[in-house]
Amino acid sequence: MRQQIGSGSSWEETVGYSRAVRVGNIIEVAGTTAMDGDTLIGKDDLYAQTKFIFQKIDKALQQLGNSLNDVVRTRMFVTNISNREMAGKAYGEFFAGINP
């Protein structure tokens, strides 16, 4: 069985992607940014952007009947590595004790 959760972005139809897709017991989440429609959340604030992104991912997982507690692997891309501590702080707030 295949379940797809949309992002609501106009790009979804244009380029053909979904926020998250479940096939069987595997869920894959698409690359996620801090965009909310046409608005960038947390401009110049990587901590706020990272929190918003994990909230979006958690919402998609919940729509598929799961949560961040079920995450076993993550991958983050930070465009300015000197800000990694801000991304790490937000990451820790969502994944402390889960340790994917």
Task: Give a topology summary.
Layout: E1 2-5, H1 10-16, E2 20-23, E3 26-29, E4 35-36, E5 39-40, H2 46-63, H3 84-95
Antiparallel strand pairs: 1-2, 2-3, 4-5
Helix pairs in contact: 2-3
Could you explain the architecture of this structure?
The chain is an alpha+beta fold and 100 residues long. The chain has helices at residues 10-16, 46-63, 84-95, and strands spanning 2-5, 20-23, 26-29, 35-36, 39-40. The protein has a 3-stranded antiparallel beta sheet with strand order 1-2-3, with helices on one face. The longest helix is centred in the middle third of the chain and has 18 residues, at 46-63.
Q: Could you name the ranges where pLDDT drops below 50 across 5 or more consecutive residues?
A: none
> Per DSSP, what share of the residues sits in E-state strands of 2 or more residues?
15-25%
Strand order of the largest sheet: 1-2-3
Portion of residues in helices?
A: 25-40%
Roughly what is the average pLDDT, rounded to an integer? 94
Which structural category do the helix and sheet elements fall into? alpha+beta
How far apart lie the N and C ends?
25 Å
**What's the count of strands?**
5
Gyration radius over CA:
14 Å
What about the largest sheet?
3 strands, antiparallel
Number of helices: 3
Shape: globular
H-E string: EHEEEEHH
